[in-house]
Write a structure and sequence with these properties.
eight-stranded antiparallel beta sheet; 1 helix; seven-stranded antiparallel beta sheet; 275 residues; mainly beta
């Protein structure tokens, strides 16, 4: 099975009518799926539904969302490569050594291409921001995450796992540096302990902000010098999709043993079907 837009590898299992299983509830599994097309939007939002579940009371290790220059390579960090360049969001379900922290734990790391993620301390020294998310594994409702990025302004992660109408803020930071051309991906890893790590659906879209970036603000301040400054406008997301809109959905169509359908929407009116 091949796709024009995405490729997967490792132990990833595609079930068209249900999920993309990055890693199964078995020991020593890694799997990944990455876009072939870079995400080049300046401001964007990624919302995805996922499921972490399995048998027994002990489980691990975790899954990750990636926005990185590297793509489509398995490795030791939640199923993908170490010393990455870009953004990693880690859903860590097994506690190695972080006293006082409740697991599962969700954290962000900005990789510079040289710094390693330290598994022994669960990335404590590499953490940009994070939160405990007890209940995200084996939740009674469909679990979702929503990551929103405004260049030169902010990065925000929200989680939905307590109830279907409640989004919980995990973290919100100031400006962070993410490569201007990077690839969206997901990966997962199991070790001696295991779980099922499933991706159900992914939706990404352009967002916009009425709050100027730092560069834009400096230009505006210079041009308005001596004329008084206007009140800053609150940022706003949504509206028209602009040129960038990708939506990934699992389509339950059986041909032979079944295949996965992926749909890319380049605007709200135009779309093309994945191979």
């Amino acid at each position: 099975m091949q796709s024009r837009w995405f490729e997967f590898g490792g132990d990833t299992i595609v079930r068209a009518d249900k999920y993309i299983r990055l890693a199964s509830d078995l020991q020593s599994r890694i799997g990944w799926i990455f876009s072939k097309v870079p995400l080049t939007a300046t401001n964007w939002e990624i919302e995805f539904e996922f499921k972490i579940h399995g048998k027994g009371s002990l489980h691990g290790d975790g899954m990750a969302l990636w926005i990185t220059k590297q793509r489509a390579t398995g490795g030791p960090i939640f199923g993908s490569v170490d010393k990455f360049e870009g953004l990693g969001i880690f859903f860590d379900t097994y506690k190695n050594n972080r006293p006082g922290v409740t697991f599962p734990y969700v954290m962000a790391m900005i990789g510079d291409g040289q710094t390693s993620y330290d598994k022994n301390t669960d990335g404590k020294d590499q953490e940009l921001a994070g939160c405990s998310a007890r209940g995200i594994r084996g939740a009674a409702i469909p679990t979702k995450a929503r990551l929103t990025y405004f260049q030169d302004q902010s990065l925000k992660l929200e989680l939905r796992y307590k109830s279907e109408d409640e989004w919980t803020l995990c973290f919100e930071t100031g400006a962070v540096a993410i490569p201007s051309v990077a690839y969206l991906g997901f990966s997962a890893e199991t070790g001696e302990l295991s779980d099922n790590f499933d991706i159900i659906s992914v939706e990404t879209k352009n967002v916009y902000s009425t709050v100027p970036s730092s560069n834009e603000q400096r230009k505006a301040d210079a041009s308005s010098s001596g004329k008084g400054k206007g009140r800053p406008k609150a940022r706003r997301a949504g509206g028209g999709w602009g040129w960038f809109f990708v939506k990934i959905v699992l389509v339950g169509v059986a041909i032979g043993g079944g295949y996965v359908g992926w749909t890319m929407y380049k605007s709200s009116k135009r779309h093309s079907r994945f191979d």
